[in-house]
């Protein structure tokens, strides 16, 4: 059963990259189907408006609920998971990507302006799995880039999408800490040599060196990922 993804957005062109490279191949292989929907197709006024002023005052505009209700109703089933990117959401992570990769149907609601009327989340929460997700502690201009990131991180974990699932084992955020540095030809580049141990053929020594490098890198770049932190 392929993973079905429906993306609802006012900027469908943001998702053209999903036709390229690994994401494109995943769709051609039938492992994943991705459909992009223009939210404005679900408006009913002449101006195809999707936003209005916020109740309670404040800067900016808020996306009105009805176009979202019409758009989500057009694709939702009782197997759907509705994902709403927002700076206020739970943090998206590799374990969350793995969960999404094993879902049946994902609906991404890509907000803009100051976000989507909260009643959209409130309406669907009793009916289906709804997840408000952030991709990090910074504010984007909308949910589209966050959705691209979450789709790419999740789809690459769908069984069969990656040619060599081996490469999933040692990558960062699968194992505790971050991954070791990588090198390839030439053996010397602008006076810089590849670490000798990697050319030695001694696989135990190479494994030990890589484990040490992972710890050094994690300590320096991501001490929060060190065991016991
Ligand atoms: N909301 C909001 C908001 C609030 C204040 C100022 C600007 C925005 C823009 N915005 C509108 C929709 C939307 C969706 C997701 C993100 C988002 C996710 C992460 N991890 N960062 N930013 C931002 C989004």
From TrEMBL:
GO biological process: tRNA N1-guanine methylation
Superkingdom to which the source organism belongs: Bacteria
Family matches, as Pfam families: tRNA_m1G_MT
Keyword Transferase: yes
Gene Ontology, cellular component aspect: cytosol
tRNA methyltransferase TRMD/TRM10-type domain ranges (all copies): 3-226
Gene Ontology MF terms in the entry: tRNA (guanine(37)-N1)-methyltransferase activity
Matches recorded under CDD domains: TrmD-like
Family stated for the protein in its record: Belongs to the RNA methyltransferase TrmD family.
PANTHER family: TRNA (GUANINE-N(1)-)-METHYLTRANSFERASE
Assembly information from the UniProt record: Homodimer.
Name of this chain's protein: tRNA (guanine-N(1)-)-methyltransferase
Species whose genome carries this gene: Pontimonas salivibrio
Lineage of the species this protein comes from: Bacteria, Bacillati, Actinomycetota, Actinomycetes, Micrococcales
């Amino acid at each position: 059963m392929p993973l079905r993804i429906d993306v609802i957005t006012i900027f469908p062109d943001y998702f053209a990259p999903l036709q390229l490279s690994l994401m494109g191949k995943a769709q051609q292989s039938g492992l994943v189907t991705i459909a992009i929907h223009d939210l404005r197709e679900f408006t009913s006024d002449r101006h195809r408006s999707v936003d209005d002023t916020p109740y309670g005052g404040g800067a900016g505009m808020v996306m009105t609920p009805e176009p979202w209700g019409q758009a989500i109703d057009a694709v939702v089933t009782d197997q759907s998971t509705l994902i709403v990117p927002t700076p206020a959401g739970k943090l998206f992570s590799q374990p969350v990507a793995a969960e999404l990769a094993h879902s049946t149907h994902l609906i991404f609601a890509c907000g803009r302006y100051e976000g989507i009327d909260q009643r959209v989340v409130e309406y669907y929460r009793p009916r289906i799995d709804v997840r408000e997700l952030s991709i990090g502690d910074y504010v984007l201009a909308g949910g589209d880039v966050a959705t691209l990131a979450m789709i790419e991180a999740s789809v690459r974990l769908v069984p069969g999408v990656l040619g060599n699932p081996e490469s999933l084992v040692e990558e960062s955020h699968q194992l505790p800490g971050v991954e070791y540095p990588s090198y390839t030809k030439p053996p010397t580049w602008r006076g810089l040599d590849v670490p000798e141990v990697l050319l030695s053929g001694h696989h135990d020594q190479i494994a030990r060196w890589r484990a040490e490098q992972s710890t050094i890198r994690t300590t320096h770049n991501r001490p929060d990922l060190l065991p016991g932190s």
